[in-house]
From TrEMBL:
Transmembrane segments: none annotated. Residues 33-229 form the Aminoglycoside phosphotransferase domain. InterPro entries: Aminoglycoside_PTrfase, Kinase-like_dom_sf. Gene3D superfamilies: 3.90.1200.10, Phosphorylase Kinase, domain 1. This is Aminoglycoside phosphotransferase domain-containing protein. It holds the Pfam family APH. It comes from Kutzneria kofuensis.
Length: 286
């Protein structure tokens, strides 16, 4: 049944399907598909209601996006239920960071700028700015998940919260440009002179500085330079980034996606010292 669906989506005979592991945090099924002519493609199949919704959104965006940052769309098969299949070019041969070099970091920043110049695909909505800036409000209402991470003391949080809450309210989140909104090493690669972004289900319309701000902690956590050594980010946006991870990293594991909370904690370990420096807060140990 799977082989038949893949053949229908691709339009060419399928001879072998190999599970692909190593990237991605959702329970979607990922595969390398070998075709009769010896070529290969990449396929992703949803397995749950959320992943089916995300995959349909991703397909809609791939159909409309144009640019060197977009992997080639090969095919699509929608069962109308929980297991639609998206087929893209096989990028397993590409260079997936880390390691991070100055040249690779600049290519990512340039690609973010290129994406911001694209027409907005139908169906892509403005960023929910009120929700995104609400991280520190969530921590203030229930600090225990954040404090359980052991990154600061209750006394430090009590002193810092007024400054953090004020800073995020002034953060320039809104804008009129297209964002990918999930730029991390597992969602981008380098293939020759192309810098490609994958997993387009979170695309939105906002200020592209939001994209740069959220990219920098994961890059630094993987051995790249500190965020403030790469570019200047509005202090309020630094507060938004830190607040997002502070309000999520200490929560229970996401069902079917056990790797999400650990990667959020890893990014918080960068974002929290970053916001301390950006806002001139007391050191975390005090």
């Amino acid at each position: 049944m799977l082989t038949e669906r893949l053949t229908r989506a691709i339009g060419r005979p399928v001879v072998r399907v190999t599970p692909f592991t190593g990237r991605g945090y959702t329970p979607a099924r990922r595969m390398i598909v070998e075709l009769a002519d010896g070529s290969t493609v990449f396929a992703k199949q949803a397995t749950t209601k959320p992943t089916a919704k995300w995959l349909r959104t991703e397909f809609s965006n791939y159909r409309q996006l144009r640019g060197s940052f977009r992997p080639e769309l090969i095919g699509w098969d929608d069962d109308g239920g929980l297991e639609p299949i998206l087929v893209l070019e096989d990028l397993s041969h590409a260079l997936w960071p880390p390691p991070w070099t100055a040249e690779r970091i600049q290519r990512v920043l340039d690609t973010i700028a290129e994406i911001g110049r694209q027409p907005i695909p139908d169906g892509v909505e403005p960023l929910d700015a009120d929700w995104l800036r609400g991280g520190w409000r969530t921590v203030a209402e229930d600090p225990e998940p954040f404090l359980s991470l052991g990154m600061c003391t209750p006394a430090w949080l009590d002193r810092a919260l007024p400054t953090l809450l004020a800073a995020v309210e002034s953060a320039p989140l809104k804008g009129d440009q297209l964002l990918h909104l999930d730029v991390r090493s597992d969602n981008l690669c380098f293939d020759g002179d192309r810098t490609l972004f994958v997993d387009w289900n979170h695309a939105c319309v906002a200020n592209p500085e939001v994209e740069r701000a959220f990219f920098l902690p994961s890059m630094h956590a993987e051995g790249g330079p500190a965020p403030d050594e790469v570019t200047t980010i509005d202090p309020g946006l630094v507060g938004v980034v830190a607040g997002y991870f502070a309000s999520h990293a200490g929560l229970p594991p996401v069902p079917g996606a056990p790797g999400v909370r650990p990667i959020q904690r890893t990014q918080l370990e960068v974002a929290l010292p970053w916001v301390v420096k950006a806002l001139g807060l007391a050191p975390l140990g005090e």
